[in-house]
From TrEMBL:
UniProt-recorded name of the protein: FAD-binding oxidoreductase
PROSITE patterns xrefs: FAD_PCMH
Superkingdom: Bacteria
UniProtKB keywords: FAD, Flavoprotein, Oxidoreductase
InterPro entries given in the database record: Alkyl-DHAP_Synthase, FAD-bd_oxidored_4_C, FAD-bd_PCMH, FAD-bd_PCMH-like_sf, FAD-bd_PCMH_sub1, FAD-bd_PCMH_sub2, FAD-linked_Oxase-like_C, Oxid_FAD_bind_N
Residue ranges annotated for the FAD-binding PCMH-type domain, each copy included: 93-274
Pfam name, any one: FAD_binding_4
Length: 524
């Protein structure tokens, strides 16, 4: 992963000339005053971890698996939000961990946590490093140092149960690795979020990830039927059966916990037969409201597509649903729906026929396979586009939320108005990419010219959008998580008593408070 951007540096590309011209004419974007820092120019604070602690950690994992070199520290600094990248592009690695520890087993994780609690060292569980909400930037005050606990060595497919259709996998597996291993058994998870190429299974669980095929396969937290968790107090084995009435489901304590309560060291996941057929297509609606009504009917009337997303007028016009075509002449009008169908031939044919009848009845126009196939080809390209926009002098970031269908128009308008109020005349695009019988998510992309202080610029916009989301009845996050960035809004969402419950869990499982301090837990 590129240390100051997204993904493979070889895939980074300069913006096409028409896009640069559009940014200048429409938004007033100008190139940054200073070039981005090189790796050798990064300002890295001295490591603070006592030598005795480093030696004790090395005794647990092996000396080669405790790293305090500059390369390891820089590459484990923060996540991949726009503020994270702006800081790294400015050469600011002030939040770097003091060391990176790579355990090789559950037992080693337990012992590392025990040692860190004893010496009051903060521990940040680290998977793919793809957090976009400040989930990898712990509070430092009061701690002897900070360790990034990289789970990359826990990368095995431990077993497959083809009768129950489950698989036991370790959390350090990146999603493509997991898919390759499962494909050897004719299986798939069906979980393909935009972070797919770099994110890990443990990160998916800890952040309640939702993949782009969620309409067919479900969210990642729906797939988790069991887990093993290491905490500073010991080990938890959770999930004896697919469903249980034996008290509250303790899986829910750790799903979405962002490493604040424990470290997931094994996952038992529901798997699916690898699809024999994949078919993607596009539909056009005159307005976002009309498309939204059609998606609601598909979600509520059964047999929905595997992939179902709707771009609003602005996103359709700009072509963001097809990033590989961005900047080509002749933008589309109306609102683009991408529908994807995966499964056995007969099932795919039935669902396509059902969806087509409903979409035509709702006013949709069939565009054929090209728009859907273009989206499928370019669905992991958008983060690279963000790097190119930042290099051109634009501030670009995303935010997402969800609500019930009845509240969705009000939420859509409120967030857009808040962003325009905070940023002047930005380009604000939106799409629906996750649908349920009762509601849906909204995913916004914002582009504006950078000011002299782009960090403060986005902080003001993010605060305004968060207030709008809370005020309009949405959740502060559908799938990005809480981290540090959403703490204030999350506290308002769950209330004082909800915050007390989370702090009670934290105090019981992590009495020294070493696990990802400053993340997730509201402070009143």
């Amino acid at each position: 992963m590129l240390w100051s951007g997204w993904g493979d540096p070889a895939r980074a590309a300069e913006l096409p000339a028409p896009v640069r011209e559009l940014l200048t004419e429409l938004l007033g974007v100008r190139p940054p005053a200073a070039p981005a820092a090189t790796f050798g120019e990064v300002r890295l604070p001295p490591a603070a971890l006592p030598q005795a602690v480093l030696a004790a950690l090395a005794a647990v994992t092996g000396e080669e698996h405790v790293r305090a070199d500059d390369d390891a520290r820089i590459r484990h600094t923060r996540g991949k939000s726009t503020p994270d990248l702006l800081l790294m592009r400015a050469g600011d690695a002030s939040d770097a961990p003091d060391a990176v520890v790579l355990p090789g087993s559950h037992e080693e994780v337990v012992e590392v946590l025990r040692l860190c609690a004893e010496h009051r060292v903060a521990v940040v569980p680290f998977g793919g490093g793809t957090s976009v909400v400040g989930g990898l930037t712990p509070a430092r005050r009061g701690y002897a140092g900070v360790v990034a606990l990289d789970l990359g060595r826990l990368d095995r497919l431990r077993s497959v149960d083809p009768v129950s259709m489950t698989a036991d996998l370790e959390p350090g597996l990146r999603a493509p690795q997991a898919e390759r291993l499962l494909a050897g058994h004719g299986l798939t998870l069906g979980h393909f979020p935009q972070s797919y190429e770099y994110a890990t299974l443990g990160g998916f669980a800890a952040a309640r990830s939702s993949g782009q095929a969620s309409a067919g396969y479900g969210r990642f937290d729906d797939m988790v039927v069991g887990m093993t968790v290491a905490t500073p107090r010991g080990t938890l084995e959770i999930g004896r059966a697919p469903k249980s009435a034996a008290g509250p489901d303790l899986r829910q304590v750790f799903l979405g916990s962002e490493g604040a309560f424990g470290v997931i060291t094994s996952l038992r996941l529901r798997v699916h037969r690898a699809p024999a057929v994949r078919a993607y297509e596009g539909w056009r609606f005159e307005t976002f409201a009309a498309g939204t009504a059609a998606l609601r009917r598909l979600a509520q009337e059964g047999a929905p597509p595997t992939v179902l997303r709707l771009s609003d007028e602005t996103e359709t016009m700009v072509g963001l649903a097809k990033p590989t075509d961005l900047g080509t002449p002749g933008g589309d009008s109306g609102c683009l729906v991408v529908a994807g169908f995966e499964g056995a031939p007969g099932d795919v044919a039935h669902r396509r026929e059902h969806a087509a009848a409903l979409l035509v009845e709702a006013g949709g126009v069939h565009l054929g396979p090209e728009p859907g196939e273009k989206w499928a080809q370019g669905r992991f390209s958008a983060p690279y586009l963000r790097d190119s926009l930042l290099a051109a002098g634009a501030t670009v970031e995303t935010l997402e939320t969800a609500c019930f269908w009845a509240d969705l128009p009000r939420l859509y308008d409120a967030v857009r108005l808040a962003l325009h109020g905070a940023l002047g005349s930005p380009l604000v695009m939106c799409h629906i990419s996750h649908v349920y019988a009762t509601g849906a998510s909204l995913y916004f992309t914002v582009v504006t010219a950078q000011t002299g202080d782009p960090l403060a610029q986005w902080a003001a916009a993010k605060r305004a959008a968060g207030e709008a989301i809370v005020g309009a009845g949405g959740t502060i996050s559908h799938h990005h998580g809480v981290g540090r960035d959403h703490l204030e809004a999350y506290a308002a969402e769950i209330g004082d008593l909800g915050g007390e419950i989370l702090r009670g869990i934290k105090e019981r499982l992590d009495p020294a408070g070493i696990l990802n301090p400053g993340v997730l837990i509201p402070v009143y």
